Amino acid sequence: MGHSLFVPFGGAEMQVREIDAASVLVLPVCYEVAPSYGIGSREGPIHLLTASAELEDVDEQTLVHWGRVGIHTLPALAPTPRPEPAMEEIRAASARCLETGKFTLFLGGDHAITIATVKAAAEKYPDMGVLQIDAHLDLRDSYNGSRLNHACVMRRVADDLHLPFVQAGIRSFSAEEAVYVKNQGLNPIYAHCIDPLDHCWMDQAIAALPDTVYLTLDLDGLDPSVIPGTGTPEPGGLSYRQMVELLRRLGASGKKVVAADITELAKIPNTQVSEFTAARIAAKMFVYLTKT
Fold it and tell me: Which residues pair with 26 in a beta bridge?
């Protein structure tokens, strides 16, 4: 399947018609294969985009009119449900976006899309690093019969792409992953080590990254009180304000953030909290990670 469904970020009035005139690209990727617990992330991009039309278009902290950044939303990509060809479809579509040199936000879908989007970004920016916000390490070599599962994202980043990365908000992992962390000398920023009143961990995480950065946000990195609508919620996550402050500091750091993704949104019927909050975070990315 190719591009099929079109819902512009922020509503039709925010859509910049021509890619060349835009500063930001948004690519929704409707993909979910072999989830480990809850389901529904395949439709996550559409729910986030629909909610985005209800956002006020001025950021309350900076007074920036994020709708004037110049956003071009592409029709949703619905890849084949087979992991190997799906990853190539997503990589190719991502590469076309990144080739423009514009900041690109990828909307998942399950976190497995990041395997392909990061690969595309690394092809253009080989010296980049990855900042992962997540409840889980995602360092399994294989899960549910595939090395391209959402639980294997950062293992592919480490072993296949050999990119430097920083993991923050971590509070759930397997014995296999614990061994891998020890053997590789990794230092994830565990959620229980984060003082809610001290943001120094943010500066440490950003400083550990190279000058070019890809940000991957699995929404279960935030606490379920903030984002309950996700497939594998874990208590003890980041607050909304911590997430926003991290974006602010990353944007002010002088690092070049070339792309980001938001994944694992799974709508809960009869409530709009998760998708609206995810859309707010996306708008914050436009404010803090792009030149406005």
Answer: 73, 105
Helix and strand element counts for the chain (H, E): 8, 10
C-alpha distances (whole Å) from 88 to each of 29, 114, 134, 237 are 13, 12, 24, 32
Write out the binding residues for Mn(2+): 111, 134, 136, 138, 218, 220
Q: Residue 3 pLDDT > 90, yes or no?
A: no
CA distance 134 to 220: 6
Structure confidence at residue 5 (pLDDT): 79
Phi then psi dihedrals of residue 27, to 5 deg: -115, 110
Q: Which residues are annotated as a binding site?
A: 111, 134, 136, 138, 218, 220
Concatenated DSSP letters of 102-160:
SEEEEEESSTTHHHHHHHHHHHH-TT-EEEEE-SB----S-BTTBTTSGGGHHHIIIII
Query: What pTM was computed for the model?
Result: 0.96
Q: 37 Cβ partners below 8 Å, 6+ apart?
A: 231, 232
CB distance 235 to 135 below 8 Å: no
| CA–CA separation, 79 and 33 (whole Å) | 11
Give the CATH number of domain 3-289.
3.40.800.10
Do the Cβ atoms of 263 and 40 come closer than 8 Å? Answer: no
238, 193 Cβ separation under 8 angstroms: no
Q: Where are the domains of the chain?
A: 3-289
Inform me whether the pLDDT recorded for 2 exceeds 70.
Answer: no
